[in-house]
Amino acid sequence: MPRFMKKCVALLLCVAMMTFLPTMVANATSEAVLIYVPDMTEITLYENAGTEEQAILFDYDDASTALPIANIFLGLFIANDSKSSGIARVNDSLKTIFQPILCTPSGDPVNENSGTRSFVSPVSTQRDTENYTMNIDALVRAMPGRLSADEAYVFNYDWRLDPHANADVLKTFIDLVLEYSGRSRVALLSGGSGGNVVNSYLYHFFDHAVHHVLNCVFLDSAIVGNPIIGDLMSGELARTLGTERDGTDGYFDIGDVFDTLTGEDMGAAIARYLGDDPGGLAEAAFTAFLGNSSSTSLAASLVMQLAALIIDRNRLFMKLGSGYKNLMFDAGETIYEDSLREYMRNMPGLWALVPQENYEKAIKFMFGGFSNIDRTLLNRIGDYRTVMADTARTFASLQAYGIGVNIVAGYNRQIVPLTASINMQSDGMQAVKYASLGATAADATRELETVTKCSRGHTHMERGLKIDAATCLLPESTWFIKNHAFLRYDNDSTAQFVVWLTMTGAQRSIWQNDSYPQFLAYSASEKELTPYSAQNSDAASYAYGDMDMDGSVDATDARLALRSSVGLEGEPSSLTLSIGDVDGDGRITAMDARLILRFSVNLITYFPVQTG
Hints:
By secondary structure, this protein is an alpha/beta fold. Helices cover 42% and strands 10% of the residues. The protein has helices spanning 3-19, 21-28, 66-81, 83-98, 134-141, 163-181, 194-204, 206-212, 227-234, 266-274, 278-290, 298-309, 314-344, 348-351, 356-367, 375-389, 391-400, 432-435, 492-502, 555-565, 574-580, 590-600, and strands spanning 32-37, 45-47, 55-58, 114-115, 152-154, 185-191, 213-219, 404-411, 440-441, 467-468, 478-482, 519-523, 528-533. The strands form three sheets. The chain has an eight-stranded mixed beta sheet, sandwiched between helices. Strands 3-2-4 form a three-stranded antiparallel beta sheet, with no helix packed on it. Strands 9-10 form a two-stranded antiparallel ribbon.
């Protein structure tokens, strides 16, 4: 655009900002609707979805899984005396759970009538459906003035399929939602494996995203993999576990419990740990490292079922422990051969969760090599490898168009003790390394010894020396929540944080809000999110007017200043105030927004605050 035209446009925008300020502020709260793309653990698969013959095929929390789960634990008891009988019981239970959702060698569902229910209507119309989760309810409660239940939508997808196929459906869903709502843009909020679908959409339909997406937020994301899935697909069970734990908040102190895996009987160790009141302590102990609900995953459901089965007889611990030990040490390969390989290997959606470092080993373990894979399935699996490898470029391109990309990861919880990733720093289900897209994280029992700096020269070390965020893909826009369980954003405090990240048209920064520095802490008892370690940054590192701190001053910064001037951004941090108060009156006002907009198109070359 010629310089003269830029000046004309900027002048018109400045006049509009001053003349139509109330209207602009109203529009700032309602320009976009929210689409939540959930994790696979939050999605129900049906047969004949949406018809009178609809029946649940797979649901992590449905009562239909209770009996086979109980049978798995019965298999552990039986394996104490007879490994072959225990294996048969476990395999029969796995077959009951997974047989209805099997995929063909090419990666399509065996049951062609299986899938999810789709709702192209806001969650306000779905309070009696599976879409209206505790997370959604908390988000709606946290968004008065920004969003209502009439402006929030949930995109369900068949998590067995490859992310590209689901991304294609997401694109159509976005178009339908925009038509239904009359809005022009959507804010995409994703959790866990939902991030893979969003990442694939952004890669394959980038032009569509540029025109229709306001912001992207990834919660506990698996877009570059999940270690538990990577290990399961590689056959790496937790046969050898570390025995040291530091007892920090959020960790189940299992030092002597896991001694069994190096010699002592597991049942006796658990019984000794729980003492005289095993039934009462078991739930608290397992909750401590898995979160407050079994809904986080099938694995968590299994463990919580174990807690329910534990009563006041130590011999039950001993039987469970011995059976678990027999199966883990001696029968893991048999269980894979008889069931797990068949159930897992043909699901492209699961392959999208395999980290790149596990990929080739998983292919060899599941198929014996690339030459043994159906070509259609291999193409589907390979597509997300390309998407994963290009994530950095995709995100950078989005930011260049003014679309925000923000990332959140929980940490300081014991990962589910099923696979070889037992010692990884995690939120119980997802490792910090993957959810944060590259943070350097110490193992659960250690501290980091070196500190690095990001490309802007900042340090990003957690005060407990557990996480160095400087190595993240987006170190200035990645947050970490200590003691926070996987995808448990179901209370006012955490939901308000998510709303602050999501309902904006700009890139968020860890420096923008004193209430939300890079490292936060969550108290499960108080249900409160608080700053854990504040960042220290020199205001001189940023230019005046650079409200989103992305290194340039543009119209997005003017918009943020305008929102801040009327309280839509909350109380500005001391750093944000020093950057945004370009007229030097001690506040961020509409005048600052106007000056920033003029500066962004070279109608002025300096700000009043710079003249003294």
